Amino acid sequence: MDISTELEKAINEQIGIEFAASYAYLSMAAYFERNAFDGFSKWMHLQSEEEHTHAMKFYQYLIDRGGVARIPSIPAPEWDFDSVIKVFEASLDQEREVTRHIYDLYKIAQNESDFATVSFLKWFVDEQVEEEKNVSDMIDKLKMAQGNPDSLLLLDRYALERKAESEV
Ligand code: FEO
């Protein structure tokens, strides 16, 4: 059974959302590199790569289901931020927005009784829980640090230890 026109459109939009998230994280990585935070920069590079992988999962799924992939344009991300914590707060906002879009996709798939898409989306539902938790935990730590340079450098070192999903 080929995918419906409505799901095809929504998945194409999701491809754009995931690529936009990848761009945004790359821009955040660049901000941290400018400010000599190697660990936070690595964290954002890994996030950027993960989002690229997510976009490609949707892309491949759409093609596997007989859909037409039409890659949408990607808006330029923010490139400057006021502080370390502001970057992570922007990251959390972005993840919550992605989660909302995944849930919308899920609802469409359920309404259409497209069980293959429901099954495919379950991985993303679980992934979003993990992604939001990781960022929230970092925000909690940054709040404790209260902008203290020594604490920020410790957290930067902690972020440096983050592994790519493929290494976990
Ligand atoms: Fe692809 Fe971070 O959601």
Describe this structure in words.
The protein has 168 residues and is mainly alpha-helical. It has a single domain (5-163), classed as Ferritin, core subunit, four-helix bundle (Ferritin, Up-down Bundle), CATH 1.20.1260.10. 76% of the residues lie in helices and 0% in strands. It has five helices and no strands. It has helices at residues 5-34, 38-64, 84-111, 115-145, 149-160. Helix 1 (5-34) packs antiparallel against helix 3. The longest helix has 31 residues, at 115-145. It starts with a helix and ends in an 8-residue tail after the last helix. The site of MU-OXO-diiron has 7 residues, from helix 1, helix 2 and helix 3.
In short:
This protein has 168 residues and is mainly alpha-helical. It is 76% helix and 0% strand. It is built from 5 helices and no strands.
